[in-house]
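Appendix B. Raw example, untouched.
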Amino acid sequence: MKKPVVHRSGADIEKAVARAIASRLHEGAQDLPHDIEERLKAARVQAVAKRKIALEPVSASQAALASAGQAGMQMGSGFKNLWMQLGSWLPLLGLIAGMLVIDALQDEFSAQEIADVDIQLLTDPLPPAAYTDPGFAQFLRTNQEK
């Protein structure tokens, strides 16, 4: 027959693992030299003292001061909050404006280059149809070799 499956909660499993670890540590502690036992005892006392300090209740005035700093970061006064908002959005707006300016300048330079090519092509004594003639490409190659 099969054993019935026992469902254990996470807390029960955690307690069982903690007991197993504690028993193994206790077994290993029996073989330690006296000086190491004393150092471990001193470290344990220090850890417990630090834990007690960390768990001491915080007074109401200390809690108010701690939370006031957080509230000040989030809310702020109206004028201060406005500057914080501007400080947040200004770099993004500057980046977008810069990209728009660069795009406009690129379009202007591109149009200027195309216009320069058109001017050269139209003011050249050679007709535009000559540029598409395969014999003209050969003529240019032979002239460059000379």
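End of appendix B.
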